[in-house]
Amino acid sequence: MNERWFGKGIGILVSMLLSCSSFQAQKMEIDDSFVLELGLPNGFSNAPFRNIMQGLVYVSPMYQYTLKSGISLGAGLHYSYFNINQFRINQKIYGGMHNGSAFGKIGFEKFWTPSFATDFSVKIGAVQSAFFTDTLKSQGITYRSTMSTYIEPNLGLCLASDVNASFRLTIGYAFYGFGFNPSYLGLNSSLGYSAADLKKTASFLIVGFGYSRYFNGKKSSNTGWDEE
Questions:
Q1: pLDDT at residue 157, rounded to an integer
Q2: Chain-centre distance for alpha carbon 220
Q3: Is 65 in a helix, a strand, or coil?
Q4: Which residue, among 48, 142, 31, has the nearest Cα to 95 in the 3D structure?
Q5: What is the distance between the alpha carbons of residues 60 and 38, in angstroms, rounded to a whole number?
Q6: In the predicted model, is pLDDT for residue 87 greater than 90?
Q7: Which end of the chain lies in a sparser environment, N or C, as judged by fewer CB atoms within 10 Å?
Q8: CB of 6 within 8 A of CB of 169?
Q9: Burial readout 121-130 (b: 16 or more C-beta within 10 A, e: otherwise)
Q10: Cβ atoms of residues 227 and 219 within 8 Å
């Protein structure tokens, strides 16, 4: 299922980038902008997190301001959801992990040509992770949660689609500052994972795409984007 979603997402992204590549414009002027990122998360590092939890969605809206030097500062929100992979647990259990975060970010954004830019940044904040499973519910527990730090280096490869908009391919690697343990799901067993495995920080790779809207005061050259 993830592979099909990922393949369709990449296909849509390639189509958007190809359409953007035909855009010829004056040098993009960037200052403040709204950015929306959407991707597919895949667990790494912590073995039980990587094997048991299956990433389904990652979404991150944010606002950022870029100085003339290229240094950018911003803030935003982040949400991700991981479902329990039924094929990796030897018992029936249903549910998943919801994660919500608020963060600040610092980075470097620059248009190297009139249509191509890179946006490298690091997001730093706090994340609240909530686990909902039928096993927890049967134990009289509505959900189990944990608060931890959130750090994510992120790279955006951007192609301008107009004088005030661009699409991007995003690659990020997020760290949630806690060691994932099957007990969060309501299980009474470590499922054979070692103490060293359980202590490793939960982390995941994100590959996806995004959209940027630049508030540079320029009118769109496309009729559908004209501003008053």
A1: 97
A2: 28
A3: strand
A4: 142
A5: 7
A6: no
A7: C
A8: no
A9: bebebebebe
A10: yes
Report whether pLDDT(228) > 60: no
Give, in degrees to the nearest 5, the angle at Cα 208 between 206 and 213: 120
Quick one: pLDDT band at residue 128, thresholds 50, 70, 90? Answer: very high
Report the pLDDT value the prediction gives residue 164, as an integer from 0 to 100: 87
Summarize pLDDT for 33-42 with one digit per residue, the tens.
Answer: 999 999 999 9
The ranges assigned to domains in the chain are 2-217
Does residue 175 register a pLDDT over 50? Answer: yes
Residue of 113, 117, 103, 51 whose CA lies nearest to 82: 51
Distances (CA, A) of 99 to 3, 57, 181, 227: 22, 10, 16, 36
CA of residue 185 relative to chain centroid, distance: 23
Q: Token digits for 69?
A: 């030097």
- The fold of the 2-217 domain, in CATH, is Porin (2.40.160)
Return the H-helix or E-strand segment holding 15.
Answer: helix 2-21
Are 172 and 190 a contacting pair, CB within 8 Å? no
